Amino acid sequence: MARAFLGLVSKLGDRRRLLEEAVASVPDLVAVSPVYETEPVGGPEGQGPYLNLVVELDTDRPARELLAIAHRLEAAAGRVRAERWGPRTLDVDVLWLEGEAVDEPDLTVPHPRMWQRRFVVAPLADLAPDLVPEDWEDRVEGYARRVDNL
Hints:
By secondary structure, the chain is of the alpha+beta class. It is built from four helices and eight strands, in the order βαβββαβββααβ.
C-alpha cells in the first residue's frame, strides 16, 4: 500500500455538493483536508472563486489507475473539457503517489505545478505537513481562504 494525494477543485454549479459527492466516491480514502476558497490561476478573465480540497488515499493502485478514477469522478460531475484552465464543475488531479514517478504526455506525477499553487499546497499541508517545505507560504502563488470541512 502507498500513500497518495488527489486534488479536487470545483467552480461551476453547486460546488460544495459536487465536492461532497466526489469525495464520497473516492476509493481507498484515508483523510480529507478542509475546504479552501481560492482565486483562479490562469484561464479566462472574470472567473469567480473555486472551492478546493485534497484527499489522502492508502492504495495499491498505480498512478494510471488513479487518473482513470479522477476522470470517472469528473464525468460523474458533468465535467466538460471546453477550455484549458476554464471554469469546470469538477477537476481532479493526481498530485503525488509514494514511490512512483510518471512523466507521460497525459500524466505527470508528482504533479508538475503543485508546489507553485497555494490552492494545492494549503490543503496538502493540512494532511501531509511532512511533504510540504516549511517555508511553503513564501514560495507559492495565489490566495486561499479556509472555508470549512465537508
